[in-house]
Amino acid sequence: GGGGQQTDRVSGTERRFGSYSWEEVQKHTKRGDQWIVVERKVYDVSQWAKRHPGGLRILGHYAGEDATEAFTAFHPNLQLVRKYMKPLLIGELEASEPSQDRQKNAALVEDFRALRERLEAEGCFKTQPLFFILHLGHILLLEAVALLMLWYFGTGWITTAVVAVLLGTAQSQAGWLQHDFGHLSVFKTSGWNHLVHKFTIGQLKGASANWWNHRHFQHHAKPNIIKKDPDVNMLNAFVVGDVQPLEYGIKKIKRMPYNHQHKYFFFIGPPLLIPVYFQFQIIHNMISHGLWVDFIWCVSYYVRYLLCFTQFYGFFGAVLLFNVVRFIESHWFVWVTQMSHIPMNIDHEKHQDWFSMQLVATCNIEPSFFNDWFSGHLNFQIEHHLFPTMPRHNYWRAAPQVRALCEKHRVKYNEKTLFRAFADVVRSLEKSGELWLDAYLHK
């Protein structure tokens, strides 16, 4: 690699071009020295990684490999992004090198590219504005009904319980809505998506858009991949999949009694993720990274909440209600997000093509009006992971064609009922705990 180099002068600076082998590209994977390949062109993203809107870790996760499919999946305006990538271009793959690295299935990659082009031609990436207007409207209506109930019926126990459920539902649905804007799937321009994302996650939920972006895009870039997907980093509270439990067991790591994790999951998983862990992480992240715009949006949510509810409950009562609402939301969020991933394959990096990587790490929940609403259309998790910028109201249109491609290439397309998906979360934790105990005691 590196043969046939030439120089070019751009903006007064000298830039070297060359042709490279995959072997050469794969040497540049460490922080401060990272190359990626997009559409056979080689880019040095070592310094740009720090300024990457999706976070520096995503580029690090793809360092030394072909990132074409991820590049296409995450960016709705490819021409604009290509323009900004030009200063990073250092060359291209040698003519004798294949477009896919590490023995990826070239036929499947090509068929998936054709599928995406077909879905684009059919209008599956076009937004129906009315869908998102109505979705926002029903969130605001839930909050308004909660306040009207308190004004009309007072703060009795029954009224307070109903208000907590209404607000918990509004928060969960606002979570799905901010998810849409965060994935740039609503407006045509990224700028408008980013702006409204800050409003929905900040003013409606009291969270940080930057925190969400940097965390969630890693999950999409490398789902269920140990040390790359933050969603399978369980902070030593749980071991998941088949590989991690064996590694912990062999190393005699026992931070928790993992053979009982399917039991204590109900006490430290759904109840505490948002009220404790996320709450602390969001505030710490905004302050430590100086995310003051996000911080102001976040504060605006708490000001609005206190102004609305302290007049009924007083300060301490409003704070208690707030935590009850977060408790409800946290259960909703954990079950919906984990049902499509925790029971699936969790392993170290295997450098699979985009389609295979997403299918092995995700599963769908059968569609219905309730399931679609309850999960924010994340019951179409496969389609969402394959096409993260596709508006969610179009997943059902893409699903049959994705299933057909799976059948053609003999890739398993998993779909379950909602209750089986919930049960599989617990069953997978129990299985992983047993694998850990066996390895801990006998290896």
TrEMBL record:
- MF annotations from Gene Ontology: oxidoreductase activity, acting on paired donors, with oxidation of a pair of donors resulting in the reduction of molecular oxygen to two molecules of water
The record's annotation in Pfam families points to: Cyt-b5, FA_desaturase
Q: Where are the transmembrane segments?
A: 264-282, 302-325
Which UniProt key words apply to this protein? Electron transport, Fatty acid biosynthesis, Fatty acid metabolism, Lipid biosynthesis, Lipid metabolism, Membrane, Oxidoreductase, Transmembrane, Transmembrane helix, Transport
* Gene3D superfamilies with a match to the protein in the record: Cytochrome b5-like heme/steroid binding domain
Membrane topology, record value: Multi-pass membrane protein
Source domain of life? Eukaryota
**Gene Ontology cellular component annotations, sorted alphabetically:** endomembrane system; membrane
Provide the GO biological process annotations: fatty acid biosynthetic process
Q: Where is the Cytochrome b5 heme-binding domain?
A: 20-94
Q: In which pathway does it act?
A: Lipid metabolism; polyunsaturated fatty acid biosynthesis
Compartment(s) of residence: Endomembrane system
Predominant subcellular localization, coarse grouping: membrane
Query: Would you identify the family this protein belongs to, as annotated?
Result: Belongs to the fatty acid desaturase type 1 family.
PANTHER family documented for this protein: ACYL-COA 6-DESATURASE, FATTY ACID DESATURASE 2
Mind telling me what this protein is named? Fatty acid desaturase 2
Taxonomic lineage: Eukaryota, Metazoa, Chordata, Craniata, Vertebrata
